């Protein structure tokens, strides 16, 4: 387990036994969860005295930069749900080609608008605005934080700026831009295409391929990775020799890599333009070093991307409660709830460290009474570290 105290924000990262990746954990919530997996925290509104609007976080960036990973980290930390804004991932099918997050990678975080649209259907930016706003409304009603993430910036622009800027009137937005230097990103996306082939890209596209269809301008067939495979898949059904087929496949994969690199350039141009629009206060987080730290990507991600982003969002939310006495009371209640969980019912984390966060010494005292020791005070954050009993 890795524990970071980044200014006044406590960040805990624990390696997932399923994916092997480090994931942000707010372990006090994990310890207080019921057997059904639902947090026993009251529903809350992400409004503050300074802003009566509900709050929404948007994670932007070029393809391959780690938008989905950051969105999942933020959702795990702040109690959020994710709304997908990738125009190809809204369709059913082609999970590998469109790089949909797997069930394991979602880490139990609810995702909206991933799949659900028939592959041949037309799904416009206006359709996305309508469905995304509906999802955001549902998330807010349940006291969760909406986090919109994806690379289709035209969809995000339509949602924010469309319909007379209705979204602006209803919600306050925090924009995060995960950026990676283009030479580094282009090398990564080329490697990623090779990984996608190993995971079944060719087989996926073959399952969608129809020799009677030559139009790749509608539905999921627009996805990079589908039209590029056309010549190769047509050759498969002929007497073309194997050497020629192999060359066609290699050419198709090279074209996929080239088109993906072109897409990243277009996405960056769009983000630069959006950042100049009124109200679009975009916070850039540089993830370049994550891609350079071979073998230490998780540690670099935590230090350079996850922690700074969590601090930005925490400031944006203003801790959701502005009155100092309200903060103290909420922290004390959290500690008291933990104390009510009997030793027999607490989850057993053999040889692991449990990290609990509180904002007051009153809460820390309650936690110590509950059997947690080694209290450390860092600025206005009280970090209580101990082992399960």
From TrEMBL:
<dbReference type="InterPro" id="IPR039657">
    <property type="entry name" value="Dimethylallyltransferase"/>
</dbReference>
<keyword id="KW-0067">ATP-binding</keyword>
<dbReference type="GO" id="GO:0009691">
    <property type="term" value="P:cytokinin biosynthetic process"/>
</dbReference>
<dbReference type="GO" id="GO:0006400">
    <property type="term" value="P:tRNA modification"/>
</dbReference>
<dbReference type="InterPro" id="IPR027417">
    <property type="entry name" value="P-loop_NTPase"/>
</dbReference>
<keyword id="KW-0808">Transferase</keyword>
<protein>
    <recommendedName>
        <fullName>adenylate dimethylallyltransferase (ADP/ATP-dependent)</fullName>
        <ecNumber>2.5.1.112</ecNumber>
    </recommendedName>
</protein>
<keyword id="KW-0547">Nucleotide-binding</keyword>
<dbReference type="Pfam" id="PF01715">
    <property type="entry name" value="IPPT"/>
</dbReference>
<comment type="function">
    <text>Involved in cytokinin biosynthesis. Catalyzes the transfer of an isopentenyl group from dimethylallyl diphosphate (DMAPP) to ATP and ADP.</text>
</comment>
<dbReference type="GO" id="GO:0005524">
    <property type="term" value="F:ATP binding"/>
</dbReference>
<keyword id="KW-0203">Cytokinin biosynthesis</keyword>
<dbReference type="GO" id="GO:0005739">
    <property type="term" value="C:mitochondrion"/>
</dbReference>
<keyword id="KW-0809">Transit peptide</keyword>
<dbReference type="GO" id="GO:0009824">
    <property type="term" value="F:AMP dimethylallyltransferase activity"/>
</dbReference>
<dbReference type="GO" id="GO:0052381">
    <property type="term" value="F:tRNA dimethylallyltransferase activity"/>
</dbReference>
<comment type="similarity">
    <text>Belongs to the IPP transferase family.</text>
</comment>
<dbReference type="GO" id="GO:0052622">
    <property type="term" value="F:ATP/ADP dimethylallyltransferase activity"/>
</dbReference>
């Amino acid at each position: 387990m890795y524990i970071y105290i980044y200014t006044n924000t406590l960040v805990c990262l624990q390696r997932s036994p399923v994916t092997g990746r480090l994931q942000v954990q707010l372990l006090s919530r994990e310890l207080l969860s019921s057997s059904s997996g639902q947090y026993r925290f009251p529903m809350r509104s992400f409004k503050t005295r300074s802003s009566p609007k509900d709050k929404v976080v948007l994670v932007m960036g070029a393809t391959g930069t780690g938008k989905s990973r950051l969105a999942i980290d933020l959702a795990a930390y702040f109690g959020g749900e994710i709304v997908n804004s990738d125009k190809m991932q809204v369709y059913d099918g082609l999970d590998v080609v469109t790089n949909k997050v797997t069930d394991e990678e979602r880490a139990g975080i609810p995702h909206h608008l991933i799949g659900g649209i028939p592959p041949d259907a037309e799904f416009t930016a206006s359709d996305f605005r309508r469905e995304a706003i509906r999802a955001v409304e549902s998330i807010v009603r349940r006291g969760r934080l909406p986090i919109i993430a994806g690379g289709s910036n035209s969809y995000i622009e339509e949602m924010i700026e469309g319909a007379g800027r209705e979204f602006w009137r209803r919600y306050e937005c925090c924009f995060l831009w995960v950026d990676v230097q283009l030479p580094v990103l282009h090398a990564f996306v080329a490697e990623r295409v090779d990984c996608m082939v190993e995971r079944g890209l060719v087989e996926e596209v073959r399952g969608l391929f129809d020799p009677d269809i030559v139009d790749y301008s509608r539905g999921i067939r627009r996805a990079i990775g589908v039209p590029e495979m056309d010549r190769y898949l047509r050759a498969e059904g002929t007497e073309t020799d194997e050497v020629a087929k192999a060359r066609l496949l290699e050419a198709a994969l090279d074209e996929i890599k080239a088109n993906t690199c072109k897409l990243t350039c277009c996405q960056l141009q769009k983000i630069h333009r959006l950042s100049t629009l009124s109200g679009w206060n975009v916070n850039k987080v540089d993830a370049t070093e994550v891609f350079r730290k071979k073998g230490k990507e998780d540690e670099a991600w935590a230090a350079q991307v996850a922690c700074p982003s969590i601090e930005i969002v925490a400031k944006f939310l203003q801790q959701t409660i502005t009155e100092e006495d309200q903060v103290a009371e909420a922290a004390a209640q959290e500690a008291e709830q933990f104390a009510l969980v009997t030793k027999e019912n607490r989850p057993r984390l053999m040889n692991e460290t449990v990290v609990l966060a509180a904002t007051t010494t009153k809460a820390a005292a309650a936690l110590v009474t509950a059997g947690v020791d080694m209290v450390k005070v860092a600025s206005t954050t009280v970090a209580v570290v101990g082992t399960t009993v």
